[in-house]
Amino acid sequence: MNTFNAEDTLIIVGIVVAYILFTTWLTWRLRSKSSGDFMEGSRAMPALVVGILLMSEYIGAKSTVGTAQAAFEDGFAASWSVIGAAIGFPLFGFLLVKRIYSTGKITISGAIAEKYGNTTKNIISVIMIYALLLVNVGNYVSGAAAISTILKVNLPVAAFITAVVSTFYFCYGGMKGLAWATMLHSALKYFGILAIMGFALYKTGGFTPMIEQMPSYYWTWDGHVGASTIVAWLIGTIGSIFCTQFVIQ
User: Fold this and answer.
1) Counting beta carbons within 10 angstroms of the beta carbon of residue 102, is it exposed (0 to 12), middle (13 to 18) or buried (19 or more)?
2) What's residue 105's pLDDT?
């Protein structure tokens, strides 16, 4: 397998550091200046910005690096892990958004307390802490996998770097600063994915040679994953949209 030499690593690190410094400055400029900005962007962000902020959850390391690895192992069926988001967000919009918004609350536990009281709220809060911890672990490990390869550091160190940088963005930027910085993050990530796809198709000669050379199960709806796993992915992804604090907020 090809590895990065010292020169490659220096170039990549230089680009990453320059990008982090620029987005740090951008986040600082756009930082939240009130509690309303920090928690909910003062409820004044354009719909396009909010939409991209929501979408950004599904073009992060977990949904690009992780799904790509799953596709390499199990075929096209790995895409179901992301297709679930395309199903879940419209359902979320039609079924829950107005109800949450009408409560005037910006947390899941707060909205639940309105109807079911503080005891239920406390139970839900504990569950949410555990669930969000697992979500963050998934994000940090996925991002750390790429960083550890580039910087040639072990996974815990790479995960720590990821955690520090991401924590800074939100703590200083809040929801308002994070939303606008995410516009840039998402554009670059989306461009990167398209560039990688274009390069892969160029090197392979298009889809036809790949289809001819790869195992037939790569191109079936369930691959080597199986229907039960796909159903679990859909339930997990759609369910996460309805109960993730980031989405509600």
Assistant:
1) exposed
2) 76
